[in-house]
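Appendix B. One record, verbatim.
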Amino acid sequence: MKPEETKVLVLDIDGTLTNSEKKITENTKNSIIHIMEEGHIVMLASGRPTPGMRRYAKELELEKYGGYLLSFNGGKIINCKSGEIVFQKTIPPVILPGLYKFAIENDCGLMTYLTDTIILGTRSDEYVELESRINGMPIKKAANLLSFVDFEMNKCLMTAPIEKAPGFVDRLNEVYGNIVSVYRSEPFFIEIMPKGIDKASSLEKMLSAVGIKRENAICCGDGFNDMTMIKYAGVGVAMANAQEKVKQAADYVTASNDEDGIVEVIHKFILNNF
């Protein structure tokens, strides 16, 4: 396959690659492996930490076919075949005391990540437990988060009641918006990321590294944090189960994650037989 013919299929995980049971269907799996066998590239792009993505990378054999993992909403990109970190940017540690104070005063969950463990700095809640369960990562409660964190953080994650989270995002952006990015990836998850990092900006760096034009990128997602890459891509795809704003940003709306929507995308935009 000529380089100019190579497509990069970029897939969000939850609500996109996986169905409502957090599983990749056989039809979706076989279709993805088929296009990799033909020489196309697959990247999983998620707000999840890297360890929370590895089981899907293993299932899709990304190490064998040279796929990529874009984790932490773009804070880190790994080449699955070589293990090389293609790109990484971390949070300035100076903001952690303020984030911790905000979380305590507003009764939010606050966590970060160390290797394969979730480090929790506040009380737990159903959303903290959901993050642990989704990623298959244990929770370690830090007795003192500020003294415990002596490592580079790819991101922090706050949890908040759905009705309060938008206001918290606005308040955090007022204070920290000049040095970090703050936004919701789910109605109850508030992501605190390095400034200028999102799925699109990191994808751009990966495409540059492998010499593929953005026009050959097909990006699929369902959540707020997928909108940047959907707008950036040559073809931006929203799932039928996507948030309405995501659908409005997309070039194409495919079937839902429970109806093998990714298979439809592969046939229509990569195999061109649909």
